[in-house]
Amino acid sequence: MSIDLGSGGEPTQAQMLGVDGSSQMTGDVLNGLGSDVPGQVRVGPGVRIIGQFPRRPGTGLPSDHREVLLSVDTFRTQGGCLSSRYEWCMKLSPAASAKITAYRPRQAPPEWEQVADRVRMLVAASAHMSPYNVERLLHVTARLAIWCHRQGMAHDPEVWLRHETIDAFVLAGCTDLAPRSAQTYRAWLRRMRATLAWIERGERVPPALKAPADRSAPYSPTHLARLRSWAENLTGQARSDALALMGLAVGCGLAPGELAAIRGEHVRPIGSGAVVVDASHLGRLIVARATWEQHLAEAAALAGDRYLFRPRRTTTYAKNLINSWSTRHRPTSGLPTLSVRRLRASWIVELLSDRIDPAVVAAAAGLTSPALARYQHFVPPLDEETATALLRGRP
Question: How many Å apart are CA 227 and CA 199, to the nearest integer?
Answer without folding.
Answer: 57
